[in-house]
Amino acid sequence: MLVLVAPGQGAQTPGFLTPWLDLPGVEDRLRAWSDAIDLDLVHYGTKATEEEIRDTAVAQPLLVASALISARQLFATADDVAARVGATAGHSVGELAAAALTGALTDEVAMGLVRRRGLAMAEAAAVTETGMAALLGGDADVVIPHLERLGLTPANVNGAGQIVAAGTAEQIAALVENKPEGTRRVVPLKVAGAFHTHHMAPAVSALEAAVQELSPADPRTRYVSNKDGQVVSSGQELVERLVGQVANPVRWDRCMETFKELGVTALIEAAPGGTLTGLAKRALPGVKTLALKTPDDLDAARELIATAADAAPAASAE
Asked: Is residue 316 a part of any domain in this protein?
């Protein structure tokens, strides 16, 4: 069974969209989305500095656009995804790309919603200086209580020995000086806020207002939620989870457990790929993985899709 996943914030690097613009129709699609959301995706994806694309209001639309552009080279429609993919998921903001790939949202609606999400989260992050840091290694039963003693939230429980802490700048600094027993490294992330914590409560309210008029379809492919790793078959519940997840911890560990239970044999990560395939290599041994970084990876991805076992019968969203 093939799983298709989309990365979250922090995966972006300067110029990462540049090679994708050489593909037919990509620049036109990006410019159409740019006009619709009033953000120049082409500029920010090709010429902007690392600091500019660290801005939450910029990074989030860029990442969803990149995931959709790259995945659409392999699966032009939601029906194509349903025919060949057994499950989908996205890490944090990547959930919006996954929702569009299942057909629950259109690409255009997903881009509009991620623009609102990015702006709302940037505004919430501006209230207090906050951030996030990845802890590599260590046992969750030791790491999580340590974080809580420092006033930090385990905002991403990613599995494979990785937990991301979120909190104020002072709390992150204290963590760097006093890392949990067994943790090899504490790595500050390229994000501008304590996402998936109570600091994001104002963004939840803004998104609740933004989705009032949406009429989501039920996903045509299994959609695995960050909230708890459960498969969500209702489009309305999917959107409700997208809204609440802004202030809830990401349980990617549970998503990977669900992939395993469903019988995953192959995993493709949309661009800018790398982070989620790295986690899968450690947590899902024996699963073939492929990260889409540039269009040069597309042929290998097509080969993997062609050989993924039981993709068609596993594709039901039930």
From this structure: no
Exposure letters 77-98 (e unless 16+ CB within 10 A, then b): ebebbbebbbbbbbbbbbbbbb
Q: Are residues 48 and 64 in the same domain?
A: yes
pTM: 0.93
The answer to whether position 270 is within a domain reads yes
pLDDT for the residue numbered 189: 85
Sequence letter at residue 125? A
Angstrom distance (rounded) from CA 174 to CA 125 = 19
Per DSSP, the three-state class of 111 is helix
CA distance readout (Å), 130 to 108, 175, 188, 276: 31, 13, 11, 24
Q: Are residues 37 and 168 in the same domain?
A: no
Would you say residue 174 has pLDDT above 50?
yes
How far is it, in rounded angstroms, from Cα 99 to Cα 69? 14
Do 139 and 206 fall within a single domain?
Answer: no
Instruction: Return the CATH number at 172.
Output: 3.30.70.250
Q: Read off the pLDDT of residues 4-21 as tens digits, 9 standing for 90 and up.
A: 999 999 899 999 999 999
Residue ranges making up the domain that contains 162: 130-188
Q: What is the mean pLDDT of the chain?
A: 95
* Closest by Cα among 197, 230, 200, 233 to 99: 233
Please pick, among 34, 70, 92, 225, the residue that the annotation labels catalytic: 92
In the chain, the number of structural domains is: 2
Are 154 and 257 part of one and the same domain? no
Q: Give the pLDDT band of residue 309 (cuts 50, 70, 90).
A: low
CATH number for the domain harbouring residue 88: 3.40.366.10
Residue among 91, 146, 196, 199 flagged as catalytic:
196
- Clarify whether 196 is annotated catalytic: yes
